Amino acid sequence: MATVPPSAVVPLEERPLEERFTLPDMTPVQYREADSHDRIDVQLGAAAQKDSELAPLAAFVKTDVQSRISLHGAVNADRAVSEHVWEFRAPGDAAVEISAFDAWAALYAFWVRRDHLERQPVQLGASLANRDHLYAFITQTGLGFHAPDSKDTYEVLLDRSSFWQGAGAPRSRSWLQAHVPSVSDFGPLASTAFPHTISFTRSDDPPVLTTHPLRPPKPAPGAVLYSRWVHSVKQHLTLTHIDANNPEHFEAYCRWQNSDRVNVGWREKGDEAHHRKYHAGRLADPHIMGFLVAWDGELAGYGEASFNKEDGMAAFAGGMGDYDQGTHLLIGESKFRGRHRFAAHMVSMKHFAFLREPRTQIVIGEPRVDLSIVPLLQAHLPQDRRKVLPLPHKDAVLFILHRDRFFIDGIFF
Fold first, then answer.
1. How far apart are alpha carbons 295 and 60 in whole angstroms?
2. Cα angle: 270, vertex 274, 279; to 5 degrees
3. What is the Cα–Cα distance from 280 to 283, expressed in whole angstroms?
4. Angstrom distance (rounded) from CA 232 to CA 209
5. What is the reported pTM?
6. What span, in angstroms and rounded, lies between the C-alpha atoms of 20 and 147?
7. Which residues are paired to 364 by β-bridges?
8. Where's the Acyltransferase MbtK/IucB-like conserved domain (predicted)?
9. What element of type H or E holds 18?
């Protein structure tokens, strides 16, 4: 009988009641939950610098009122689950305005302490001088909605999966960085979604012959693609588009690929010319992008995200949708291994893929069937092990990760 790997989930009771962490733009946030578990105070840094001085931002206070969190219209009243309403209020006695920009940061801190729930009722308190504005912000961005049975005008039902999908996230504070097209280059645009335009790929090696959507231009090499604080290891993780002309990037990549441990899985050992040719091909190929994983700026590994329909694997797997994606990863530095970092690496890659293309419904993985990573992928990601997939160069396990399940069950702590 196969051994089940230890869980990477940190139970709520084992998490600290007080923590300082950084938003994706490196602005510090600190939350503190009272020992009585009925109040959460949030402080925010004055600048996008991790050592920036903190100032009180908001408070969340548990009330005696309870509201339904079960799906309205689907779950019978006798089965419906309710939770205490929390008041989102100013940090002190005086009424203040909290910008939508900063309200999102406050909600981030709140979800860190309440992520055992999929939905949470919150009342916008009278001490928020602009609560009409914040109500519009929350409901119009999809961060939450006004429940059909709510009798309080300012009560909203926050949705955790909507938050992690990027609802209401300011562009600078979003986990998805290096936006293309960028506001700094072209100003705010009515839509930044890349249009559905038909393209075509023909290739003999690997075998590809298919129509597919035209893929958007990739961010420049060296651009930070994704940024997120990982609470379980108390460090900041980034994904950066690899720049083979950057000596630090290229040296690390070559060293990792030429190590015996990494070569077992990737089989890309070779000289500098081999590695430069590989990256030139990746850079020129619109369907795939390589990136470096770093913890607090220290390089840890290399990964790739690709669109499946025009990938060489698609002819063997079959059934790939227009916007389905796939990911691969190696961790070159042994100090950054372990179950919590493994889960963070995998969740961050998949999170990046789903965020960069909202039309993506599944992200796949296809590791070689004999690799030790296979049971870890099954344990630490909410994905389905579909089948063993025979490919020309390997027998792979085909994993399918669905968008809805990822945002509900993914380990974001």
1. 31
2. 120
3. 5
4. 44
5. 0.96
6. 32
7. 326, 400
8. 240-289
9. strand 18-22
Signed CA dihedral, 170, 176, 180, 185: sign only: positive
Q: What is the DSSP letter of 369?
A: T
What secondary structure does DSSP assign to 320-356, as a single string? Answer: --TT-EEEEEEE--GGG-SHHHHHHHHHHHHHHHHHH
Q: Which amino acid is at 406?
A: F
Token digits of residue 343: 């889960």
Long-range CB pairs of 273-278, under 8 A, 24+ apart, other chains included: 275/244, 275/250, 276/244, 276/250
Tokens of 170: 């300011």
Mapping DSSP to helix (H, G, I), strand (E, B) and coil, where does residue 74 land? Answer: coil
Question: 177-206: per-residue pLDDT in tens?
Answer: 999 988 888 888 888 889 999 999 999 888
Query: Token pair for residue 110?
Result: 């709140």
What amino acid is encoded at 140 in this protein? Q
Question: What sections of 182-317 are H helices per DSSP?
Answer: 183-186, 247-257, 260-266, 272-284, 314-317
DSSP 219: P
Residue 241 near residue 248 (C-beta atoms within 8 A): no
DSSP state for residue 393 in the 8-state scheme = S
The per-residue pLDDT for 192 is 81
The encoded tokens of residue 98 equal 């909290």
Q: Which of 42, 53, 41, 47 minimizes the C-alpha distance to 26?
A: 47
Catalytic residues: 366
3-state secondary structure of 65: strand
> And the tokens for 213?
């959507």
For 70-95, what is each residue's pLDDT tens digit? Answer: 999 999 999 999 999 999 999 999 99
User: Which CATH superfamily groups domain 175-409?
Assistant: Gcn5-related N-acetyltransferase (GNAT) (3.40.630.30)
Domain range list for the chain: 12-172, 175-409
Can you give the length of the chain in residues? 413
Per residue in 86-138, pLDDT (tens digit) is 999 999 999 999 999 999 999 999 999 999 999 999 999 999 999 999 999 99
Phi (first) and psi of residue 77, to 5 degrees:
-60, -35
Which of 125, 81, 108, 102 has its CA nearest to residue 413?
A: 108
Structure tokens that stand for 44 in this block: 């925010």
